Amino acid sequence: MKEILTLQAVLSDLDRVATHRAYNRAPNFFGCAVSLALLAVIVCLFFESLMPLFLFLPGVACFTVLFVREVRCNRAAKAALKGALKRENISISVEEFSHMSEETIVEPHGNGRHAHMTKEVRFCYFTSGGSWRVPTGDRLYSWSKTHNLSIRGLENISLQGDAFFYVSLQGYPDICYAYPCKFFALDEVLRASHPQSTIE
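The structure assignment produced for this chain is given below.
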């Protein structure tokens, strides 16, 4: 039996994606900028010269700009999510599942005392060419009473050609979530706002 997908459930999932992005990317860009700055100071002290400083300045500046941009983007995304409760800026389409794969992406992050520049993440691909970065950590659809799944569980139940509701925050294509149509159906509010998504 299908579970009803509500706007509140969608916003809850999108908020978790936005929060994960905010706590994952921005602090790591800041950490990289600070680490490079400290390394520059140590090298300058070691050589008793300011010349090495100019080798590190582009990297520090680059990570600082990335940090500021991420903070602004995260704030704007959070504001848009809050606004979605009143002025639905949620985009919904129906996509055909192609496959899932694990990929290595460049994303600075910390793991205990160690810092890494790359990360292994899973992507869900659709025949349209679109993709969804499957969130790691907590189970998917944790609000669901009957269909909360692990990443492996989602992969096991997904067959090529299956239909998925693909939901994204307008203006922020990387803040998105996908729901297998075999398990979920849109409620009246989402159907009325997005009549093109008619799969039941």
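Interim note for the steering committee: The longest strand covers residues 90-111. The mean pLDDT is 80.
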